[in-house]
Amino acid sequence: MAGGKSDTRLGAAWRNAVPVGVAVVGALVIGAGVDTVHRHPWSHKKKATANATAATARSTGKPRFVVGVRRGGDALVVRDVKTGRDVGLSVAAPAGRRFQRIAAGPGNSYVVASYALRKVTFHRLDLGKDGRPSALVDIPRAVVPGVSTASSDMAVTPDGANIAYVTYRAGSVGTVDVVSIKSGTRTTWKAKSAARISSLAWTGHNLSFLWIPQPRKAARGAAGAQVPAAAPQVRTLTTAGGLKLSKTVLRLPAGTQAVVLSPDGRTVVAGVESSSRVALQQYSTATGRPGRVLWEHAGKGGVRRLDADSSGGHLLLSGDDGSLYGPDERTPVPADDLSDVAW
After folding, report:
1. Which residues pair with 238 in a beta bridge?
2. CB under 8 Å to 22, separation ≥6 — which residues?
3. The domain 5-47+62-214+226-342 belongs to what CATH superfamily?
4. What does the UniProt keyword field contain (predicted)?
5. Domain map of the chain by residue range?
6. Is 192 exposed, middle or buried (0-12, 13-18, 19+ CB in 10 A)?
7. N or C: which end of the chain has fewer CB within 10 A?
8. How far apart are CA 108 and CA 113, in angstroms?
């Protein structure tokens, strides 16, 4: 985006999103029930349940640090959410390899993927209470073959037992591998058509992801003509018994770039771009209907990613202005030097 007034307007718009982060967090914690709150009076029982859920979320506490992959993949950096400053020394990538993706694991741990020579390997990073990173530890048995690209994605189960990773074959056709950290056992699902597979998330034994089909060339007609891509979808894979068929659970409007699934799997928060606005919109996976618009602004600024922390209760928004936004933080975290982040 060009500099000057456009940058100023975009920065102001994103800053206005920060207080709304509190509403986003509430939506993730309470789930699809939020959509009914504004249509029906609360009973005492419902209100008590919601208050208990919110109290549980508060007791977990929001993360104080984000861990990011530096562009180029040569190092990891830890950044303080409040100050935007780096904490401790950066962690160098293993010799001959480049970091690609990072995901939150249990506690203060993170799983990091590195890539070289058509092979993805994984490493564990722990943070101290002060946010300082420990030495990187290899996860020796977990290996995923394939081509890892800037569009690859990763998710770790809440107990840290399994990793899901996306690689790509010729023509941007994706493959999802689920690998056991302990044994290295791997199961694979191969897509049949070209699509970007992102926003991986675990809900019990189900692995969800955002499926964005890619345009294909028309069989007939004008030279170079393309058939418009189908609408983005949230799909799930049941990992119990091996990866087999994916199931579409929600169709989303064109322009959806990122999603976060609530911990109970009942609500999706989608980052949707159009020619005139950007919005964070709730959807029910049960009915497919849109719920509340949690935040929106006019213009062409975009949402690069939406990420939840390991508790599922706090949302991190990556904006096209190169900054990260979290609940209650008035000052965005600078992240234009990072290609992927987790908290």
Report:
1. 206
2. 327, 328
3. TolB, C-terminal domain (2.120.10.30)
4. Membrane, Transmembrane, Transmembrane helix
5. 5-47+62-214+226-342
6. exposed
7. N
8. 17
